[in-house]
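Re: folding output
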Amino acid sequence: MKLIASKTSPYARKVRILLAEKQLPFEFVEESAWSPGTTVPAYNPLNKIPVLVTDDGTCLYDSCVIAEYLDPLGAPSFIPPSGLERARVKRDEALGNGITDAGILVFLERKRDPARQDEAWMARQRAKIDAGIAALARELGGKPFLHGDSLTLGDVSCACALLWLEFRLPEIAWRARHAELGRWIERLESRPSFTQTRPPA
């Protein structure tokens, strides 16, 4: 397998963590969809990362599709097989992705000329981020993981979202408001899969 991805992408980090947890061998091809001359469109016509290229040459995107493909490939499993438990884990994956989506929209808006930045638009995205983090804190409660005693795709997705916010939008300072999420993240960050996939400084 070959993963086309950036070391700073939270969606790519989600996939890289799953690969590391499962100890699945793969070739990492570092690419940015924003770079002139990027090769990403050769793998994904939407010019978005990550893309997983399977051994038979099939290109899989986006991170949700890749996670579904990887889950049956060895242990442990991060997605329940069916029913409400599966739906809850997929919902939590969507929550993490949604927090990340809103954060990226703020990050990109800030790259525009200050006179053209839409403060109301950024406030709307920030409200989504804050509401998403609050929902995550309620879901976690005092549990070691979002769904009991084992790491799921929902944990990975939401953790990647919060850690990306610290990396790109540190002023959000979610740990100051949610100590229980901070303790949860600290436990996850002690895992080799998280240590190995930290974005470069």
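--- second protein (sequence, then structure) ---
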Amino acid sequence: MSNEAHEGGCLCGAVRYRVTGHPNVLLGVCRCNFCKRRTGSAFGISAYFDEAAVQITGELKTYQYHSDESARWLKTAFRPTCGTTVTLTSEAHPGARCITVGTFDDPNWLKPTRHVWTRSALHWIVFPPNVELMATMT
């Protein structure tokens, strides 16, 4: 694993994190209804790392959601003061922690190559060329 480290945090600055290496589980753009609602946007961008590669300081609250399609759970970890979702964990990826890409101090080091739940994408979305498109995700 690379020793390269990247940092980020929540909007109010009370929660900070540091990741070492690169996402090795999943790096993608998700257009499922859960991600649209949790971000208040058209999609969520997620980078999944091994749990051991993620160090978090500060206090987060959690909310567990059960998918209406897969029945699997997803757990968001957010800062209640500013509302920033900083991380997620999911039943589908045990031992991994997702960092929400928009919370990195410089998110430009990541380039998602996969778009999932494309069947739930808003109709005006145009997908970038040369990315993997998945109608759903198991």
